[in-house]
Specification:
The chain has 3 helices and 4 strands; from the N terminus they run αββαββα. The chain has 118 residues and is an alpha+beta fold. A hairpin with a 5-residue loop joins β1 and β2. The structure holds zinc ion.
Length: 118
């Protein structure tokens, strides 16, 4: 079940998150992608730990402001603890990663079918 969507007027304590956002120093940087196309990214400045947490805090803040909480889903694999933001058109993504949990599920289903066939 996805986290509840914040409602208008719903008071949230954002002070702790703001502390990380204020400590996060970054600068815009031009980079070339693998095809040589220019893209604008941001590079962290300052303390490495604060910079790492600052980037996470910024992603959380963006999610709180712009995100649709109904698209936040928990990976369906029983051994996985990850959550993801479902950006698929059909909104039917099941796995945090098809290459990891999706394939683990497929392999388990294949083993189950193979045992049943013997
Ligand atoms: Zn997973």
């Amino acid at each position: 079940m996805p986290p509840a969507q914040p409602k208008q007027g719903d008071a949230r304590d954002v002070d702790a998150l703001n502390e990380y956002l204020h400590a996060y120093l970054s600068a815009p940087q031009l980079q070339c992608d693998s095809e040589g196309k220019l893209m604008l990214t941001r590079t962290a400045r300052g303390d490495a730990i604060v910079s790492m947490l600052g980037a996470v805090a910024e992603a959380v803040a963006q999610l709180l402001v712009e995100g649709d909480f109904t698209l936040i889903k928990q990976c369906e694999h029983p051994d996985c603890i990850l959550w993801f933001y479902d950006r698929t058109k059909a909104r039917k993504r099941w796995w945090c990663s098809m290459a990891l949990c999706g394939n683990r599920h497929k392999a388990a289903q294949f083993r189950k079918r193979s045992r049943a066939a013997v």
